[in-house]
Amino acid sequence: MIAEALIESRFARSTPPALPLTRVYVSPWGAVSGRAAAVEDMGICVAATNPAGIRAVLATHPESDEELAALHALSPSMGPCLAANVKLTANRQGIRATLAEALYHRLTSPVPATVPTPEKK
Fold first, then answer.
1. Side-chain half-sphere exposure of 99, counting CA atoms within 13 A
2. Closest alpha carbon to 74 in 93, 51, 90
């Protein structure tokens, strides 16, 4: 809720551009949230690749039918952002919180933390 309030008060009219999908995202704040690293990394990835989709989720009332529809619309962006063989089992509240926090960090640090892809020789 704090991330959502900060986004609304400080970045109400700002949505960063979508960036191309990269191989790995890193969550420097993951240890603080207590969420699984795969969930944090998925949030960072979605905030990088579909920030407007997160905005659509945050524009809805929590636990509403509209929120569910917005999450369903965002789900094609979540799949490619999950690590291989990881299944997302968080509830809607947890997913919303992860996405809001990731978008807040994206807005305050425009370049998401990534692990560079090794150069091919």
1. 28
2. 51
4-17: pLDDT as tens digits: 777 776 666 778 88
| CA 58 to each of CA 69, 84, 97: distance values in angstroms, whole numbers, following the listed order | 12, 27, 9
86 vs 119, higher pLDDT:
86
DSSP, collapsed to helix, strand or coil, labels residue 103 as: helix
pTM: 0.80
Q: What are phi and psi of 29, to 5 degrees?
A: -100, 5
Per-residue b/e over 11-26, b at no fewer than 16 CB within 10 Å?
A: beeeebeebeeeeebe
Residues facing residue 115 across a β-bridge: 24
Reduced to 3 states (helix: H, G, I; strand: E, B; else coil), residue 91 is: coil
In angstroms, the CA 99 to CA 7 distance is: 12
Rounded CA-CA distance 82/28 in Å is 17
* CA pair distance 44, 40, nearest whole angstrom: 6
